[in-house]
Write a structure and sequence with these properties.
The structure is a single chain. The protein has 181 residues and is mainly α. The protein is built from nine helices and three strands, in the order H-H-H-H-H-H-E-H-E-E-H-H. It has a three-stranded antiparallel sheet with strand order 1-3-2, covered by helices on one side. The longest helix is centred in the middle third of the chain and has 16 residues, at 87-102.
């Protein structure tokens, strides 16, 4: 297996095309390019170097990871308040607002999360409605960020999983958090 270095924007674009939890970047690219996903056995690398990652970007990434490390199922969500939310949409919005409050300076990362032909996040209601008339956009608290809410519960969980993944939350904690939706 060969490894390539890609920039952050391209990585986020590839990650935004994830259709299932655990799907690798290689599987996503093969699917998007119309190649057979089943034909390649994935091998875990013993080591990956990051020669192009400069010190400033690495420092920012470490700081963000440390900040986001505080995002866990117990400290992120007030379970009593979550339980009072109306339906999956209410719990979805409540959880997104909690993530926003925990990481307001980095929350714009969610704008990179998109479906194949769908916009999930925007900074205005109009942008989501322009992308899809049936989006049913809702503002995430008073954050200035809007999210499409007319997806089924499974898709809401997938979107939330991608959001948490963007912030470096561990897979086990992602499962715990999305289990509340």
């Amino acid at each position: 297996m060969k490894y390539i270095e890609i920039d952050e924007e391209l990585y986020r674009h590839i990650a935004s095309k994830t259709e299932r939890i655990g799907e690798s970047a290689s599987e996503i690219l093969r699917r998007l390019l119309g190649l057979d996903v089943e034909t390649v056995a994935m091998e875990a690398p013993s080591q990956i170097s990051q020669p192009g990652l400069d010190k400033e970007v690495a420092t920012q990434s470490q700081q963000q990871s440390q900040q986001v490390a505080a995002l866990d199922a117990d400290s992120l969500l007030d379970k009593a308040a979550l339980a009072q939310q109306k339906g999956a949409v209410g719990r979805f919005l409540f959880t997104l607002e909690a993530i926003y409050k925990a990481t307001p300076n980095h929350f714009d990362q969610v704008l990179q999360i998109q479906g194949r032909d769908r916009l999930y996040f925007a900074t205005s209601k109009e942008s989501l409605l322009k992308a899809s008339k049936s989006a049913n956009p809702k503002e995430i608290g008073n954050s200035g960020f809007w999210v499409t809410t007319n997806n089924n519960t499974a898709k809401k969980r997938t979107i939330l999983s991608e959001v948490l993944g963007q912030f470096g939350v561990q897979e086990k904690q992602i499962e715990t958090i999305i289990g509340h939706i």
